[in-house]
Design a protein that fits this description.
mainly alpha, globular
Length: 95
């Protein structure tokens, strides 16, 4: 957890409910970055031929992006402040 193909809403909920999962990915990225010739690593795909940009797409940047509204330029305060009491699964799998 999380899936490398998770949606924006899922990543936001994971960052709020399971911060230890985000910390674990951050440690993985740091370990891979230390051994990388490109000096970068990202858990999520960063499709670009620009190595400098791809190296900056860390889990922390993706979590910050998940806090934004459409377009990724403005924070969505309503989404950030939600307490997550309702089921957020697109499949309705919550108990």
């Amino acid at each position: 957890m999380p899936c490398i193909n998770c949606r924006k809403d899922e990543l936001l909920e994971i960052s709020k409910r399971f911060p230890e999962a985000i910390d674990r990915i951050r440690r993985w990225e740091d370990a891979v970055k230390a051994a990388s010739k490109r000096n970068g690593a990202t858990f999520f795909s960063a499709p670009s031929s620009d190595n400098e940009w791809a190296a900056q797409q860390t889990i922390d940047k993706r979590v910050e992006w998940a806090k934004t509204s459409r377009g990724g330029a403005q924070y969505d305060m309503l989404r950030m402040d939600s307490d997550g009491q309702a089921c957020t699964s697109i499949y309705g799998l919550c108990e």
